[in-house]
Amino acid sequence: MHYSPVPMHIPDGFLTIFVSVICWGITIFTLGLSISKTNKALGEKQIPLMGVMAAFIFAAQMINFPVAGGTSGHLLGGAMAAIVLGPWAGMLVMTAVIAVQALLFQDGGLVVMGANILNMGLLTSAVGYGLYRSVSGQSNNKVKLAVAGVAAWLSVMTGALITSLELWLSGISDLQVVVPAMLWVHAVIGLGEALITVSALGFIFRTRPDLLGEGSESAMGSRNWAYVGGLIALIVVLFSPFASSNPDGLERVAGDLGFLNAGQSAPYSIIPDYTLPFLGETALSTIAAGVIGVLVVGVIAILIGRGMKAKA
Amino acid sequence: MHFDAFDRYHEKESFIHHLDPRVKVVVTIVFIVSNALLPDGAWMAFAFAWLFLLLANVFSKLGLTYTTKRSLIALPFAFIAITILFSMPGEPVASFKLLMWNLTITDTGLLRFVSILIRSWLSVQLAILLVATTRFPDLIHAFEHLRVPAILTTIIAFLYRYLFVLTDEVLRLMRARESRSAASAGNRSGGGVLWRAKVAGNMAGQLFLRSYERSDRIYNAMLSRGYTGHLYTLNPHEMQSRDYFVTAFAIAVIFIVQIIGRL
Amino acid sequence: MPHSHPHTTFSIPKNNEDALCVQVRDLHFSYPDGHMALESVSLKLCDGDKVALVGPNGAGKSTLMLHLNGILGARGEVEIRGQRLTRDNLPAIRAMVGLVFQNPDDQLFSPTVFEDVAFGPLHMGLPEEDVRARVDSALEAVRMSSYKDRLSHHLSVGEKKRIAIATVLSMNPSILILDEPSAGLDPRARRTLINLLRELPITMLVSTHDMRLVQELFPRTIVMDEGRVVADGLTSEILEDEKLLTAHGLEKP
Amino acid sequence: MPHSHPHTTFSIPKNNEDALCVQVRDLHFSYPDGHMALESVSLKLCDGDKVALVGPNGAGKSTLMLHLNGILGARGEVEIRGQRLTRDNLPAIRAMVGLVFQNPDDQLFSPTVFEDVAFGPLHMGLPEEDVRARVDSALEAVRMSSYKDRLSHHLSVGEKKRIAIATVLSMNPSILILDEPSAGLDPRARRTLINLLRELPITMLVSTHDMRLVQELFPRTIVMDEGRVVADGLTSEILEDEKLLTAHGLEKP
Ligand SMILES: Nc1ncnc2c1ncn2[C@@H]1O[C@H](COP(=O)(O)OP(=O)(O)OP(=O)(O)O)[C@@H](O)[C@H]1O
Ligand SMILES: Nc1ncnc2c1ncn2[C@@H]1O[C@H](COP(=O)(O)OP(=O)(O)OP(=O)(O)O)[C@@H](O)[C@H]1O
Ligand SMILES: [Mg+2]
Ligand SMILES: [Mg+2]
Hints:
The complex is a heterotetramer, with one copy of chain A, one copy of chain B and two copies of chain C. By secondary structure, chain A is mostly helical. Helix content of chain A is 71%, strand content 2%. Chain C has helices at 61-68, 90-96, 104-107, 113-123, 128-141, 157-169, 187-199, 211-217, 235-240, 242-247; strands at residues 8-9, 20-30, 36-46, 50-54, 78-80, 83-84, 97-100, 175-179, 203-207, 220-225, 228-234. One adenosine-5'-triphosphate sits between chains C (31, 33, 35, 37, 55, 57-63) and B (1-3).
């Protein structure tokens, strides 16, 4: 038995410095927040807890189950880490896991680690936790588990989508190829993720429900997280079909914004002489459509959540 | 049972092994950044970067092919970039028919694809050399010195320590499952996919609980040795003049590589 | 028992030599890291035999046991009931050879006792009523019937140990292989386990460091050290051979 | 030794009664889930005493040990060297009472042996050279000096056990408390450990299921069951009292 790499870990050399630096920026900012939040929430116990949990996620990624034809499903763990530990601690734990995978096994690069942490640690935690906590008022564990499954699946899809966007911005691959390819592959990987996450949480519900209860460490500030996670997930849901069916529009937006230039040619012209982006007609209309869609589905989700709470 | 397969450190008495870990980390990162900055088709610069790598290999006494052999790990990812062979506008180099598609490889596409592979291949090799010549705890110390937040470095130190304990546990769990994965004559064995997934999830849940409870015991062990929320460590490393010299030399070389790449 | 390597031999109890259960011939095994864990191990177990496997830490006891139901190796040197172990008959062999690991926590991965004991039969594709019947009789055999719906996580070590044995009994194995069954048990739980093992009417190979258990329960003992079988014979004779015992880090009970 | 609860009493070896080391008076403790783990436990350890703590699984041995350096409870019924355990003197008490946990993997949480053994002294705020000196002498005491730079996960169980003891010795404790030190060791490693414990010139309270260890090493034995001390006296006398032993799930060695 050996450690087997996962397709989402981007190696060094595949992203431009520009994209790497942007990702590092977002990652460092978010990790800074995580550190101050977990300091407050967990106190002196945080070190051994998060350290062992990181080792747990690492080890749990090795657990697989045979699917068919020699393939097998297994866990990535972002959603699970956030659901059992809370979003901030989940992010730190996933960061440690990704860092060790890169440092020890070269699974994922060092300079692109910021991107890998963003894709597989931060976003998966936010989406997984946010969606799961949107039903925190629920008393019915079946509903919670079902939502956890959807959350786990969407967390993987989110990571895959952002990964493909980064690759595209770096000029590694065409949008109309990389987005559908990554999303299809991860739609299947996400199913394994969802199944294992649901069953593992079910196990915890039955043996130590206190760890997942309202008073647990993981239940901190759930309301806002529900919005954040829900929003990201909705963007993914709406964006993926749009991106894969209408890549030209997106390519154009990015071209107008100057990303593509920065990505594909001279790395030293990071600040190109672009004016403030003037949105073309098609781009403008698709973005508007996207925003309206997000809002509509968001409102529906909030209403459903309210209804469930009222019942419970 | 003992599972050491995760250790990447290669015990040797060499110049590189004895360098301060900070030096190795910084040089590795600068090298990888430099690779990413090299323009497509900067063959001379790639060649010089490779020479630099060979030099590092020689001074680590691991053998010239040590990193080459292990560098294939990033190759599968190259699949993702394969479409740029055909999609970049440029002079056609070769074209062939695959199933129903007519594919044409362009010169710019080829140039870009090969450049990406080389960058990645060079970068991953120095990273491999880094962990082969630096014990992981020293690597963690290096990151502490380089001002990575202590909470992250300690989580990583714990992760490294318990990686072995927990993967051993997983290995035993999976063996136990395997040893009971039996068939009886006349029945279709194996169960459904959903059931198998559920068993895997149960194993993950089981492992979670045990890890959680273990963290409690570790916390107790830390408390009983005076832990109050602050971690103190002794600093085992001190930069020597040799370390400064090597850093300066390496960065100068990498800088020259950049200039060659832009001539 | 013919061995190509020099080792102390004793007279071996010969009960029904023909109904041979397990036959291991000249088994070699190295771990991926190059460590040679088994060197030319040969042994024979007959139906109804209860055999102890002793030796210092790292002798290769667990490694040998992992070979007997094909978790490791499976290169054809192991024969169970006349069938050579190959990739194809692995699942069938696993139904015959029940392996109980040292740590019951490894064996119990489901939330409830029932689900754990049912894993083997379910994987064998048995129909539901058969599965239930098997679980019931396995739990009956270890006298834990009332624990069916309990959460494994909350059981004591001794209880877990017995459930772990039940998870294997439910597959109706013809050979039971136990790795250090008494480790970590308090005297009471240990006593219960000894009685249980004495009662089970099944071929048994048990590795242990507990020499008193060996003396009490097993007519025959195999001593391993450094990947080799160094002695194989009547327990009473082996336990008297102080030179042999001290040479292999063992102690008289 | 005055006890408010009826239990078998034996004559206790009285070595320097005044240099009292540990005094526990009428200690009660329930876990958050309501489980009563300790009920009116009282005991006394004197300087130089080597005492065994035995009893069936769940008797409360580990719980009691966690009280002795204030990890649990700390409600003032525990007195170490005349100091009552309070929140304020906790760090001082923890430097005096060295607790070695059952599983060395829980105790050794740092990547390298050096870092682990240095953890205690560092957290006591000692200057660097003192820390290094302490680490050296602690490793010397368990005869593992050459292991300083080794990685903990590369050690065998027996080696880990000895390092775990060193992590506590480096704090120069006046009492050493060991929870099941011999569990899981093979006879050779167990023998090494016994010799080590015999040599260490320090007050010791050791919980164990290994009655032969008790007989060999400890002049005095305390028996616990269901959260109470049910006997406390000369080992030789306790081990002869078969009724007491069987009543509490123990066995004569
Ligand atoms: N996964 C592994 N990789 C490499 N070496 C291993 C592995 N598992 C065991 N070994 C080595 O193989 C040898 C035999 O190990 P094994 O576990 O079979 O011994 P054992 O007799 O069961 O010992 P114990 O009494 O401690 O259980 C030992 O030297 C051990 O270190
Ligand atoms: N964290 C906990 N929460 C609730 N109950 C606990 C906890 N830890 C232990 N107990 C219970 O308290 C009782 C005493 O446990 P303790 O671990 O002290 O026993 P012990 O004598 O050390 O047993 P062993 O010989 O198995 O180590 C047991 O019934 C146990 O189930
Ligand atoms: Mg073994
Ligand atoms: Mg205990």
